Structure formats: structure tokens, C-alpha cells
């Protein structure tokens, strides 16, 4: 936020200042006002920054499916304006995401490929998703491998690649995630589920406990409570239920589990 405020203060033109003001408004929860600033900027001068701000804010804030066509049009307008490689790659990547959401996979793939041509490495993840939606998990896995090779020590890339392979390879990728970033929760949940499937209930609960020790996540508590219930450990299940409900007293699945476990208490 401080950087945006400084950029606004030192803007060399009115249309640049309006764009920075738009981002500040968007980032502080005033999306409609931010969109208006982008439109004002475009009225002064058509620019990549103003079109991109408008497209980004609209895509993130609108629940109306019909807004997708407007976002596409705005991103296409942005790409027609002068911009550097980094910004062009981001716009192409965002456009690919919109096309995926609209199930236009060929157009999405073209966007991601063009983004990769300007060395926007995150597009590998988008292209992997396209391969997966085309029922080609092997190609998706290979695409994520290319990303991992370019972005070394990228825990999120290993985590995403684990979705495109068999269980043993997934376990290996998720072990790497935990080594690179021990505070990412998903690997613990995955390993706990695998252990539970293998009837290693104690190890499964211990795996969840490792994650809960640094993050009292509602879903982790719900899962551990369910595992305790499965083991017949009513008191431990109730303890986790109560802890989870202290985070979200209205969580329906947690309320149902608490009611069921509570009925087993002597």
C-alpha cells in the first residue's frame, strides 16, 4: 500500500495517478470506486495499466457469469497497448484463466503458450490445468515439471504437481513441499488421509497434530475429530469439535459431528 501511495504522489500524468488511486481503492475494499478511476484514466488515455486494473477488479469482484466477456474484451484491449514483457505475460495468463472458466480450452492454451513465449513461467501451471481438463494427466505432470525446473525450491509447484500423478509420486512431491515450506497445510492432510486408508490410525492422527501445532485450521480439526471418532476416542473427538466450533460456531458439518460424538459420551 505504501508503494502505491508513493507511486500516486510521484505520478507523471493524470491518467497514471488515476490508475494508482484505483488500485488503492480496490485494495482497501472499494472496488466500484476503483473501477471508476480506471474508466476515468482510459478517458484521458488508453493504457495497459488502466485496462488491466479494470479487468482485474471486475474479474475478482463480479459473481455474474456474463461479466467474463467484458473481462476478455478489457484484457484484449490491454494487450493492444504498449507494455513490457512482464505485464504482457500477466495479462495473457489472466486471459487464459478466464477462458478456462468459460470452458474455452483451446483459446486458454493459446494464451498460456503465448505467455510462455514472453517467459511468464507461471503460465506452465495454467497450461497444466488445461491438459488435466483434457484428461491428459501425463501432459499436466510434465508441464508442472517444466515449471519446477525453472522455479527451483517452489513449494507450491510441487504441491500442484502432486495432483497430476499416482499416489507414490504424489507422496514424494508432498514430502518435498514440507521440506521447502513446513507451514503448508495440504501435505499433512493428504498424508493423514493416506495413512487412514492404510488403517494406520495413530500415525494419521499424529500427522494432523503436526499441522495443528502451528495452525488450528478448522478443516484439520474437523478431520482429526472424525479420526478420533472412528477410533472410539470420544473425549478427544469432543475436544477437537469444541476447538473447531470456537473458530466457527455455525459450521454445519462440525455441528453435526459434535452432536453425533456427544451422543456417544457416557
Automatic annotation (TrEMBL):
The keyword Coiled coil appears for this protein: yes
UniProt keyword Lipid biosynthesis, yes or no: no
Entries under SUPFAM superfamilies matching the protein: TPR-like
Cross-referenced Pfam families: TPR_8 (PF13181)
Keywords for the protein's UniProt record, in alphabetical order: Coiled coil
Domain of life, source organism: Eukaryota
Coiled coil: 134-161
Signal peptide segment: none
PANTHER family given in the database record: ETO1-LIKE PROTEIN 1, ETO1-RELATED
Protein name, entry field: Uncharacterized protein
Amino acid at each position: 500500500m505504501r508503494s502505491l501511495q508513493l507511486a500516486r504522489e510521484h505520478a507523471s500524468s493524470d491518467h497514471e495517478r488515476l490508475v494508482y488511486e484505483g488500485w488503492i481503492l480496490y485494495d482497501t475494499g472499494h472496488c466500484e470506486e476503483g473501477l471508476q478511476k480506471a474508466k476515468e484514466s482510459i478517458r484521458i488515455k488508453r493504457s495497459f495499466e488502466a485496462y488491466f486494473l479494470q479487468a482485474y477488479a471486475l474479474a475478482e469482484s463480479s459473481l455474474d457469469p456474463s461479466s467474463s466477456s467484458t473481462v476478455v474484451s478489457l484484457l484484449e484491449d490491454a494487450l493492444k497497448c504498449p507494455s513490457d514483457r512482464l505485464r504482457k505475460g500477466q495479462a495473457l495468463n489472466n486471459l487464459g484463466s478466464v477462458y478456462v472458466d468459460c470452458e474455452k480450452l483451446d483459446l486458454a492454451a493459446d494464451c498460456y503458450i503465448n505467455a510462455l513465449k514472453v517467459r511468464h513461467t507461471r503460465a506452465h501451471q495454467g497450461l497444466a490445468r488445461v491438459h488435466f481438463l483434457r484428461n491428459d494427466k501425463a501432459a499436466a505432470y510434465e508441464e508442472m515439471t517444466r515449471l519446477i525446473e525453472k522455479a527451483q525450491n517452489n513449494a507450491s509447484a510441487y504441491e500442484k504437481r502432486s495432483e497430476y500423478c499416482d499416489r507414490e509420486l504424489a507422496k514424494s512431491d508432498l514430502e518435498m513441499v514440507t521440506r521447502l515450506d513446513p507451514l503448508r497445510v495440504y501435505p499433512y492432510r493428504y498424508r493423514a488421509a493416506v495413512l487412514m486408508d492404510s488403517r494406520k490410525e495413530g500415525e494419521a492422527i499424529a500427522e494432523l497434530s503436526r499441522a495443528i501445532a502451528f495452525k488450528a485450521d478448522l478443516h484439520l480439526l474437523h478431520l482429526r475429530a472424525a479420526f478420533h471418532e472412528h477410533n472410539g476416542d470420544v473425549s478427544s473427538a469432543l475436544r477437537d469439535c469444541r476447538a473447531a466450533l470456537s473458530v466457527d460456531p455455525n459450521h454445519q458439518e462440525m455441528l453435526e459431528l459434535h452432536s453425533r460424538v456427544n451422543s456417544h459420551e457416557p
